[in-house]
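Pair request: fold both.
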Amino acid sequence: MYNLLVTLGQGILPIAALFSPTLKRFVKGRKEVFKTLSLELNPTKKTIWMHAASLGEYEQGVPVLEEIRQCYPEHQIVLSFFSPSGFEVKKNTPLADSVVYLPIDSLRNAMQFIKVLKPSLAIFVKYEVWPNYMTALQQAEIPSILIAAIFRPNHIYFKWYGRFMRKSLHKFSHIFVQDSSSQALVKDSGYAQVSVAGDTRFDRVSTLSKHTEALPKETQEILTAFSSEKPLFVGGSVWHEDMSFLGVALEKNSHNIKFVLAPHKVDKASVETILQVLPIQLQKKSVWLSKTNPQEASKASVLIVDRIGILNQVYPLAQMAYVGGGFKTGLHNTLEAAVYGIPLAIGPNFNKFKEAKDLVGLGGIQVINTNENATQFLELALEKSYIEQIKGIQTSYISAQLGATFKIMSQIAKYF
């Protein structure tokens, strides 16, 4: 049934792509995978392959990729993505020798992909368990690991009807999970090669906070001009649902705070949807990063970051932040902001995210679910004693979680 659904999907996707730019990239990119690999890979060199679903999973994989580059410089690295949002942003990353879309998980594609790559090791990030790729790797006797995984009892692997996916999960050579409850679930399912390593994102954000990449000169000049006179609030990966609760609070505090909003989707329609939720006065005082200049930005109250991939470089400029998704699809990455020890708020849908639950419990993150407590958060975020308190909580928590990459690399060393 799984293979039938995959086959049907392959047939339907080209038709659906006629009506969706995202699906068009999804389909077109996969047509060029094997050609790209033949042009970019050296058949005489050994290969390590990492697969990530999208940009967030890529960030979790980066600390491991960096260590692999350093420890195994004789190997070439292939990085694959499932979604266009990851591929388009990171297709030129220097951490990989070749970046491609992962071909659809048919047995034929999987066998061909593994035959072309001949990887010495395959690394999958977080939730990426593809049955036919796992079969192809197992048949070729290629070790494979899953890193930064986190499981819940409602996942299909642990249901009575999930035997097929459970067998695929058990084909990994080793699984690294983020917490002990995930480890217990996997062990109870009949698989013993599972270890608690933690979340590699802690290592990633810690490194980023110490070695922030420089923004393009023009972008830096705009941000500097925009934020030079007042404290800066950054709303990261926000949706219009987030702004429905934040908009009034932003207007009430616009006399003493500047606001950078980085929408999760940056196409024109999505950005305009977010702007329409803002109070009229803020709409009139808003500028888009792609369309403004330093002089104009300095007079604005709201700066819309209509570019993907630079949020990590914007957070260091903030004195306070809000991470989006907590009113919609699920919370985005809070650690990217928390690593800077600043007052931080999120929406109420955070229970599936361990680091957010931990920090909320410690008092290091505020939860917003009304216009009133959004306003209260912005006022509190300007108080020196509160700022110092939050910095202490966040810094201590993140420091205690470091080290997942080292544990994973210790296992990787056993395969070489």
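--- second member of the pair ---
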Amino acid sequence: MKRIILDFKSKSSDFKQLVQEAFNKDILDFLISKNTHVEFEKIERVNLFSKNASINPKYLIYDDLEVLNQKLEEGGGQGNIGFYIELKSKEDELEIKNLSKTGQVDFIIVSAKDWKIIPFENLIAEMHSNDTELIAEVEDVKEAELMLKTLEVGVDGILMTPKHANDIVDLKKLAHTTFSIELTKAKVLSIKTIPESERVCVDTTSLLHPGEGMLIGSTAMGFALVHAEVFETQFVASRPFRVNAGDVSAYILVPNDDPAKVYRTNYLSELKGGDNVLVVNTKGNARIVSVGRVKIETRPMLRFELEVSKGEKKIAINSICQNAETIRLVDSKGNAKSVVDIKVGDEILVHLGPGATHFGTAIKETIIEK
């Protein structure tokens, strides 16, 4: 999980509201000053960062390298020490790299006002394998997202001054870009041909990998893992950005605006370019990707009636896929298997859903879908 440090060195008009929202979202790393220290000194669970040694913060930050080196030489480097630098030149970049190699500081906070991407790419490439955290000071959530995704690895953390409570909500969501969704086995009970349906292809702006796909279901009771079109075939080239997902009425799992809940659902017919969806691999690891476009075309389909055994309970779910060799579900061993080769009695990977949903959000209500 990425570190989020909120800059609370000064008090804005909604200071208390912002601090409370941080507590609500379990963000507890704060950069403070002598003026704001009184607001936090009696709260045990917070992690306080400061350049002011007199307030005895948990993490002391130096911004003068000579002073830091002198302190380290005197034996003052006992952990929980960081360094702050504004990156203005190649020499600054080299200074950061060299300091990180010593292992004498726990983190380095880097502020880059002009050049951002290239210097941070260089720092991430150099520092991602050592123990010194690279923290980027950013202006807003958009810049935070950029820093967290640079070179795919991203920086180790973000320092930002929140202007609104929504900034804190959005930062929390960015910190949880990967998570897990439980997968289980479902047995194929029957397979029915549908001569003609409106089929949806979801083309993403990311390259998908073998073992990855999207969770699609005809009801909110369960979702089959439909594999991405990453495989070359004799007649069709791979489309490693695409999942040939299902019919227009099917549900797809998408990120939830509430960080406390992993996902919600959309109908495939609702998706459009610019939306976000979840990509899940055969281990259940999920990530968020953006939709580049959606293609809806008329195609023959197959309807799979499935059953999940949960203790003594049998849960019926179903999935509808295009009837074509390139469309694959995932078998119980994690192998992608063409829908035309799946037989009654086979087992495939699915996710059991919440059951009842209202506008895509799980609710405690009796709803029957069949």
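Observation on the second member. The longest helix spans residues 90-102.
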